[in-house]
Amino acid sequence: VKPLIWIESVIEKFSHSRVEIMVKAKGQFKKQSVANNVEVRVPVPSDADSPKFKTSTGNAKYVPEKNLVVWTIKSFPGGKEFLMRAHFGLPSVENDEMEGKPPITVKFEIPYFTVSGIQVRYMKIIEKSGYQALPWVRYITQSGDYQLRTNV
C-alpha cells in the first residue's frame, strides 16, 4: 500500500548559523475523500531558535520542549499538495552526528474510506431484547504509527 499522505523534505544547514526546512505533503488517496486533523511533526536541532514559518495551508508552530515543528492541516483533500517552509537560527556550533536523525511523523484520519476497499454489504442482527438496531456502518482510516526517515 502506498502512503496515503506522502511527505518529502529538504533540510539545508548553512554553516551552523541557520537551518531551512521545506516539507511537501501530497494526498495520495481519492479526490472525493478528505483527511482530517492532519499533523506533520518535523524534528529540528535542539539548539534551534527564532522560528519563521510559511505554509500554503494550515498552521505551523514550534514546540521547543520536544524539538519539533508541528504543522497542522484541518482538512486535506485527496490529490492535493501543500508546502511548509521553516527557517531557524542555530546559535551554537554543535556536532551533527551526535544528535541523530529522528523521523518525520504524520497523524491523520480519513472518514468514509478504507485502505483495503473492504466493505460491509450485509449484516444480520438476531437480538431478542427489543433494541432497534440501525443498518449503518461508518468507515474511518487512521494513520497509526507513520514515520518517514529524513536523509539529512
TrEMBL record:
Subunit of clathrin-associated adaptor protein complex 1 that plays a role in protein sorting in the trans-Golgi network (TGN) and endosomes. The AP complexes mediate the recruitment of clathrin to membranes and the recognition of sorting signals within the cytosolic tails of transmembrane cargo molecules. Belongs to the adaptor complexes medium subunit family. The keyword Coiled coil does not apply. This is AP-1 complex subunit mu-2. The keyword Cell wall biogenesis/degradation does not apply. Keywords: Cytoplasmic vesicle, Golgi apparatus, Membrane, Phosphoprotein, Protein transport, Transport. It comes from the Eukaryota. Residues 1-149 form the MHD domain. GO terms for biological process: intracellular protein transport; vesicle-mediated transport. It is found in: Cytoplasmic vesicle, Clathrin-coated vesicle membrane; Golgi apparatus.
